[in-house]
Amino acid sequence: MRFLTADYLFTLYTTPIKEGVLQISDDGKVISVFKNRREVNQNQLEIFEGILCPGFVNAHCHLELSHLKGSAKKGKGFLEFSKTIRLRDNYSDTAKKQAIEEAEKEMISNGIVAVGDICNKVDTLEKKQKENLTYYNFIETFGVDLNNTDVVFNQAIELRNEFRVAGQKASIVPHSPYSVPPVLMNKIINAFDNADELLTIHMQETNEENQLFENQEGAFFDWLNSMNATSSIWLNRNKPTDVLQDLSDKKVLLVHNTFARKEDITDNYYCTCPRANLYIENDLPDYSIFDSDKLCVGTDSLASNDSLSILDELLIIQNNSNFDLNTLLKIACKNGAKALGFSKLGTFRNGKIPGVNLIKNLDGFKFTADCFIQVI
After folding, report:
1. CA angle, 59 as apex, 111 and 164 as ends, to 5°?
2. For the whole model, what pTM was predicted?
3. CA 42 to CA 280: how far, in whole Å?
4. Contact predicate 203/176, CB 8 Å
5. Would you list the DSSP string of 265-304?
6. In the chain, which segments carry CATH 3.20.20.140?
7. Which of 90, 272, 327, 360 sits between 20 and 30 A of 121, alpha carbons compared?
8. Which helix (H) or strand (E) holds 220?
9. 156 near 138, Cβ under 8 Å?
10. What residue ranges of the chain have pLDDT lower than 70?
11. Structure confidence by residue, pLDDT tens digits, 229-274
12. How far is CA 371 from CA 54, 115, 368, in A?
């Protein structure tokens, strides 16, 4: 049994508690929250400087791309970045395995307890079976040529089943509005079963994506045509978010939304990956347009980021929004857990096992570049 206290306790279901006390079992289960240190035997208290909050949820990552760290040049746009991704298989299995190992360790040391992870291959499965972190595996489909639709979908079914047989949570999801035509989207929707809780989709990551649907022109239009893409991707869709009409009865997490506008926002969950947005497009979303109760945060991959740190992401969001500290921590913990369906994570409610992070070196209620995480 442990009794943890710091300058402030952020339960994320109450207002922050000054010198609040968190009682947890030896296996990390929340037993009780006390509003005052005097309610607890003083000899049992573990007193820390800083703030205590639940473990972070990385709502969007590509763990299998960890071996591509530093390979892509910064600020060159998505199409240039995609060339790096196409080189993913030019590495040995040993290099990939080692990079995945190191990336997971980095997430754990940075206070992350759960991950929404995009999967195109089985590369990460061995590591995930060790259950160091909790994963929701999103089996991603990309199929712009109608001649390949059945092959793409059947491969996704096989990969999803392989993850599920191994005891992993897994769903087949569309990559993006511009890469999944209606016929493939229908197959994905029809494959949704009782084991599925969430669909995720990259959305409005680049301005070229908006141009494709709104004007049927631009760099994406030319790129897709060069790949023999079916025009059904953009015909009868006036904007990227029109694809959501096919998902109206599903729980959906939209990722990136860098070039989303207020009129594009719907009643879905949204995930922002600010450091990746700066890495690829050198731009950020307008955070004022999002419902802070539906906003999550992710790191994206090490192919598009220098680190896998939710704290680093929060610092950028803080400096480009009006969110207070409690809201930022909800975005980092509670919202991601709710979106991914991880009911035991996200807050310090009794009975949950959310992990405990100590954040040090804040400036009052503000993150600073000197902040760091100590996992309790």
Report:
1. 105
2. 0.97
3. 51
4. yes
5. --SSEEEE-HHHHHHHTS----GGGS-TTSEEE----TTS
6. 56-343
7. 272
8. helix 219-226
9. no
10. none
11. 999 999 989 999 999 988 888 999 999 999 999 999 999 999 999 9
12. 16, 22, 5
What amino acid occupies position 367? F
Q: Which CATH number fits domain 56-343: 3.40.50.10540, 3.20.20.140, 3.60.15.10, 3.40.1280.10?
A: 3.20.20.140
Read off the tokens for 289.
Answer: 């347009």
Cβ atoms 185, 174 nearer than 8 A: yes
* Coil/strand/helix, residue 324: coil
Residue whose token pair is 């009643």? 267
C-alpha distances out from residue 133 to 66, 114, 117, 266, Å: 16, 5, 11, 30
CA dist 168 and 365 (Å) reads 37
Here the tokens at position 99 are 């990079």
165-189: pLDDT as tens digits: 999 999 999 999 999 999 999 999 9
Distance of alpha carbon 368 from alpha carbon 364, whole angstroms: 10
Please name the residue that has the structure tokens 């004022």: 288
Distances (CA, A) of 294 to 117, 144, 328: 19, 30, 12
- DSSP type of residue 19: T
